[in-house]
Specification:
This protein folds into 2 domains: 2-17 and 233-422, Enolpyruvate transferase domain (UDP-n-acetylglucosamine1-carboxyvinyl-transferase, Chain, Alpha-beta prism), CATH 3.65.10; 20-219 and 226-230, UDP-n-acetylglucosamine1-carboxyvinyl-transferase, Chain, CATH 3.65.10.10. Helix content is 30%, strand content 26%. The protein has 12 helices and 24 strands. Helix 5 runs parallel beside helix 6, helix 7 runs parallel beside helix 11 and helix 9 (306-313) runs parallel beside helix 11 (376-386). It binds shikimate-3-phosphate (S3P) and phosphoenolpyruvate. It is found in: Cytoplasm.
Length: 423
């Protein structure tokens, strides 16, 4: 798909999409809960669909109701197929691998696209300590595993990704690992673990931790006959809408929980620091442009904010400094480099200095042909920046957005952005 975004002024109100982080965790918890779960406000991104497919292959029955809710019936992990495929979802593969390993059946775990090149060697090291046989493709996919996983006291490294810990926490919780301790060194993306623990608590699993270093499992609360879980609005996708408002018009974004544990709620800090018009209420955020100035932001624990932050920084006077570049190497693309390459086409100079990204803003953006590198957040960053360019910005492989936010172009179109979509 090729999308052309013309310079535009936007206005109006829009509702944030469902969070794939919240939705995928809910799917996993519903599978593990072994009862009936109704998911309200379910997401429809590719990653969400992959999670629904995985839980069905692991034995859950999924039905879509007329009101849009999804109902999941489960009797726990009981694989119906020898292979599961997590699509392109990093969270999916890293969360569902330990969960699938709760079963004694031999299973192959695979993915597609960029996931095939993302590191999984964590599992080579950790799963054998939990009595799971694993054979990976030199630390990449596919993984061949055979459980059942037996929780034990272990020490893991949390510096590459929090997603492995999310999977272990869920699997240990479901296995009733009372008293077991997971010790984590150097955990990054900590708020994502808060979200995991919050979803687990909703489904009755209590985990305590001391400063994200030692995680202990407590007795499981007796499960109710059925659960209902409402998927949160997505701060990660909404960060692009909020930045679009800060640079290109007065808009209102609804459906975001300002008390959410989602990491990317931190976009509010950057928006407040750059001096845009910002009014935050529990049910809606109003945002609009003013004279914008460069800011300093540490994105180590919210790495998905880099792309919208770069689009924002490109419109701010001065040099914006964003910390945490080391967290970007293993996402759907190497985002430090892809942001540098694509924004250079728009006329924006980005310098990478070790763990720092420096964005020289307000130097004028020009129309150009950009490429998503099949990375949803790169496509969305280019589209938002395009609103302030002096000519049309073409985005090649623009359909990458389907991974997290399939309605993104429609949403900014509804706000008045001039967009041409060629399928
Ligand atoms: O748990 C999650 O939902 C996610 C965790 C983060 O990954 P890392 O923990 O690898 O930073 C984030 O980048 C990813 O998009 C989603
Ligand atoms: C990196 C991302 O997701 P995941 O790691 O789950 O594929 C993302 O959504 O930007």
């Amino acid at each position: 798909m090729i999308v052309t975004v013309s310079p535009s002024v936007i206005k109006g109100a829009i509702r944030a999409a469902a969070s794939k982080s919240s939705m995928q965790r809910a799917c996993a918890a519903a599978l593990l809960a072994g009862t009936t779960t109704t998911i309200v406000n379910p997401g429809n991104s590719n990653d969400d669909q992959a999670a629904l497919d995985v839980i069905q292959k692991l034995g859950a029955v999924v039905t879509k109701e007329a009101d849009g809710n999804i109902v999941i019936h489960s009797k726990g992990v009981a694989p119906l197929h020898p292979e599961i495929n997590c699509g392109e979802s990093g969270l999916g593969i890293r969360m569902f691998t330990p969960i699938a390993a709760l079963s004694a059946q031999p299973l192959t775990i695979n993915g597609t696209g960029s996931l095939l090149t993302r590191p999984m060697d964590f599992f080579d090291e950790i799963l054998p300590q939990l009595s799971v046989n694993i054979q990976s493709n030199k630390g990449r996919l596919p993984l061949k595993i055979q459980g059942p996983l037996q929780p034990a006291d272990i020490t893991v490294d949390g510096s590459l990704s929090s997603q492995f810990l999310t999977g272990l926490l869920m699997a240990y919780g479901a296995a009733g690992a009372n008293g077991a301790v997971i010790t984590v060194n150097n955990l990054k993306s900590k708020p994502y673990i808060d979200l995991t623990l919050q979803v687990m608590q909703h489904f009755g699993w209590e985990v305590s931790h001391t400063d994200y270093e030692q995680f202990r499992f407590q007795k499981v609360k007796p499960a109710p006959a059925a659960f209902t879980y409402t998927v949160e609005g997505d701060w990660s996708g909404a960060a692009f809408l909020l930045v679009a408002g800060a640079v290109a018009g007065d808009i209102t974004v609804k459906g975001l929980d300002v008390y959410s544990t989602q990491a990317d709620k931190a976009i509010l800090q950057a928006l407040s620091d750059c001096g845009c018009k910002l009014s935050i209420r529990p049910d809606e955020i109003e945002i609009g442009p003013l004279s914008l100035k460069a800011f300093h932001f540490n994105a180590t624990d919210c790495p998905d904010l880099f792309p919208p932050l770069v689009a924002l920084a490109a419109c701010c006077e001065g040099i914006t400094v964003i910390e945490g570049v080391e967290r970007l190497a293993h996402k759907e693309s190497n985002r430090g480099l892809t942001l540098q390459e694509e924004f250079a086409k728009l006329g924006i100079e980005i310098t990478l200095q070790g763990n720092l990204m420096l964005v020289k803003g307000n130097t004028g953006m020009k129309g150009a042909v950009t490429h998503s590198h099949h990375d949803h957040r790169i496509a969305m960053a280019c589209a938002v920046a395009a609103l302030k360019a002096n000519g049309d910005v073409i985005i090649e492989e623009a359909d990458a957005i389907n991974k997290s936010y399939p309605d993104f172009y429609e949403h900014i179109q509804q706000l008045g952005a001039v967009i041409k979509i060629q399928k």
